[in-house]
Specification:
Length: 264
């Protein structure tokens, strides 16, 4: 049975993707488009999220780990220039397509790792890093130091990272009760790495917590201004309404941690 063309679903939210390009992208892109660009996830939705964080009217913003580029395109509509980076070629190709199909001309897509940024010091007014930090093969503090290096003094950093509730959701709801069995060993590996991190402090990929993030950001030269659940930070409550994309908790544990920090 032919899979639903998720580009057409996304276009129902105003993304304007060329539906004939659907078959040229791998399945994980299709699933991401279904989950992140459909079902109420319009460009205006992402714009409202960014306005709530104060990510507008900036000269230059970095989307660190842009994935399918929806945050990048929304950022470009609110700021003068956006640099979007990722290490995955299919993500970069889709991000470029998403930008061009929407006539976005101030978003520059390139291949790069968040752990080794190809930019000079003090280049950016803001950095967004949504659901990427956990996938990097470098210790979070090293990544934060890179972010600190390329941010201008007083620049903003927005992070969104998975924590205990999300991993339980992947393990139980999607892995054990659902049909995504590959989730089970993935989550168990993460839990084992976390235990090793507690014992040795040598692991670079482990379950992140608020206390760890606060301390790691401080060591890298940041001041954590706000920490909340996904979509829980709103600095413009009088003018912007924010609708979180993910439930606050699974099985009693917070699912996602959103962080807004400032370069000291």
């Amino acid at each position: 049975m032919r899979e639903v063309n998720t580009f057409a679903l996304a276009n129902g939210e105003g993304w304007n993707l060329p539906v004939n390009e659907f078959d040229s992208f791998p399945q994980f892109i299709q699933h991401t488009v279904r989950d992140e660009l459909s079902a109420g996830r319009s460009k205006e939705y992402y714009r409202s999220r960014l306005k709530a964080l104060g990510f507008e009217n900036m000269d230059r913003v970095l989307d660190a780990g842009c994935g399918t580029g929806q945050w990048s395109v929304a950022l470009a509509s609110l700021n003068k220039r956006v640099d979007a980076i990722d290490v995955d070629d299919d993500c970069l190709r889709f991000s470029a397509l998403l930008a061009s199909s929407g006539n976005t001309t101030n978003c520059y897509v390139q291949k790069a790792s968040i752990a080794s940024l190809p930019f000079t010091d003090n280049s950016f007014d803001g950095i967004t890093c949504y659901s990427v930090l956990m996938l990097c093969g470098k210790h979070p503090i090293e990544v934060f130091k890179e972010f600190h290096r390329v941010l201008k003094p007083g620049g903003k950093l927005y992070l969104s990272v998975d924590t205990w509730g999300w991993y339980l959701h992947l393990l139980i709801d999607q892995g054990i009760l659902g049909n995504q069995r590959y989730r089970i060993p993935y989550v168990f590996r993460y839990f084992l790495r976390t235990i090793k991190h507690w014992i040795t402090g040598r692991e670079v990929r482990f379950v992140l917590t608020k206390s760890f993030l606060r301390g790691a950001l401080a060591k890298a030269g940041f001041e954590s201004k706000h920490m909340a659940h996904e979509g829980g930070i709103n600095q413009n409550k009088n003018s912007v309404t924010v609708r979180p994309a993910i439930p606050k908790r699974f099985y009693g544990f917070q699912a996602i941690i959103d962080v807004l920090a400032i370069k000291r």
